[in-house]
Automatic annotation (TrEMBL):
GO terms for molecular function: G protein-coupled receptor activity. The lineage of its organism: Eukaryota, Metazoa, Ecdysozoa, Arthropoda, Crustacea. Keywords: Membrane, Transmembrane, Transmembrane helix. This is G-protein coupled receptors family 1 profile domain-containing protein. InterPro entries: GPCR_Rhodpsn, GPCR_Rhodpsn_7TM.
Length: 94
């Protein structure tokens, strides 16, 4: 599973997800980027509350949930391997 092509597909999928998540606002389909004088940066304008909610879910909630799910699977795999005796103890000598 750690072959370079698989890792390349993962990286490409992450970039595609990030790019496609921002395109609707960039072209003005859902929301619009505006200059915020208070924070001195460009962000979504407050005019479209639905767009802000959608971007909150797409940019924060979905990635965080994926991280939790994947770390859960990593924890389960490590625990199963440890029960089978395939993990060795790490000894650190000073």
């Amino acid at each position: 599973m750690n072959r370079p092509t698989v890792i390349g597909v993962y990286i490409g999928a992450i970039w595609l997800y990030s790019f496609s998540a921002r395109m609707p606002a960039a072209v003005g389909v859902m929301g619009q980027y505006m200059y915020n004088a208070n924070t001195m940066e460009c962000d979504l304008g407050n005019a479209n509350k639905v767009a802000r909610l959608v971007y909150l879910v797409v940019d924060a909630f979905i990635p965080v949930m994926l991280i939790f799910i994947l770390y859960f699977f990593v924890f389960i795999m490590v625990r199963q391997r440890n029960k089978k005796g395939k993990l060795t103890k790490l000894v650190v000598k000073y």
